[in-house]
Every structure is written in structure tokens, then in C-alpha cells.
Amino acid sequence: MPGQSRGRPGSPSPLEHFNAVPAEDAERTLLACLNSVRWALRMADHRPYPDLTSLLAASDEAAYDLTAAELAQALAAESLPALPEGTYAAAHTALNAAYAAYEAKFGHLFVIHLDEVPPEERLDRILEGIRSRLANDPEEERLVAAEELRRLARGRLADAFRDAGNCAASH
């Protein structure tokens, strides 16, 4: 049930705790989910959130408003997707070449949301995504990257408030 406490009886849920912490603490938590100061400020300023669905909807709305500079800031803080254990050296070589081509063309790291992708399919999905997105022009890719960042932030928030963790743990 939304807003219901987990863990010890009487202890606040992760969302209730987030709603109650000082703005600076909330902003720090949010910046670990998406490194955009304006996004984090908007999210923190709109507290309290009655439930996770409301928090995620607010995240989406705030992420849609990122400017090109804010998108660049958020992209600069991202890390490359992790490959499954046991990935062959040749796959690493191919992936590194694809990452380099992408960064040379667009000037930022490749980001992709993979939460729903089974681990054994992630390498193929990453390579497929890079190859298809290399055909984009810079403005089109900026929109695709912004959507991937929005999805990453949404997934990190959901993980953090569903599992009582924090966004930094889900990077």
C-alpha cells in the first residue's frame, strides 16, 4: 500500500523519510539518480509525494524540461552500462570501438536503459542501440539520450524508494 511503512513497525517508509528530510538532503539523493541540479531542485521542491507513482510522474515531467546544457551535465555524470560477467574479450573490443565512435560523433557518453533486458541479452542490446543511434543526427540523438536519461532516473527512483536503498546504489 503506498506510503505504508516497511521494516520496523512505526518506522517511516523510504518515501516518507524522503518527504521529511531537509531539502539539501533530498537534493543530494536526487542528484545521485540524475545529475541535473534543476531537476533535483524541482523534485525536492514538490515534496511531499503521496506515493511512488506520483514521485515517478513528477520525475518524468521534470526530466522532459531539461535544456541542452542540463542534458550535457547529466550525461557527463553517467557511466557506461556494465557488461555481464564472462563477456568475451572480442566483445569488449567491439563495444569499446562502438563507444568511441558514438562519443566522437555526439560528444558525450552513450546511455541506455536496460532494466527490463535480461543480463544475457544486454551486450547485444547495447551494440544494437549504439549502431542504430549512430545513424541519428545530433539533435535527434539529443532527444533519444534525454529519453534514456529520463528512463534511467525513473528506474533509479523506483529502486530507491521501493527497496529502501538510495539512487547512488543503483548506478
Principal-axes geometry comes out as: globular
Mean pLDDT: 87
The assembly state of the depicted protein chains is single chain
**Share in β-strands:** under 5%
Q: Classify the helix fraction into a percent range.
A: 55-70%
User: Count of DSSP helices?
Assistant: 8
Q: What is the helix/strand order?
A: HHHHHHHH
Helix/strand/pairing category: mainly alpha
Tally of DSSP β-strands: 0
Biggest sheet descriptor:
none
Which parts are unreliable, with pLDDT below 50 for 5 consecutive residues or more? Answer: 1-7
Compute the number of structural domains.
2
Task: State the end-to-end distance.
Answer: 27 Å
Radius of gyration: 17 Å
Short description:
The chain has 8 helices and no strands. The protein is mainly alpha-helical and 171 residues long. Helix 5 crosses helix 8 and helix 6 runs parallel beside helix 7.
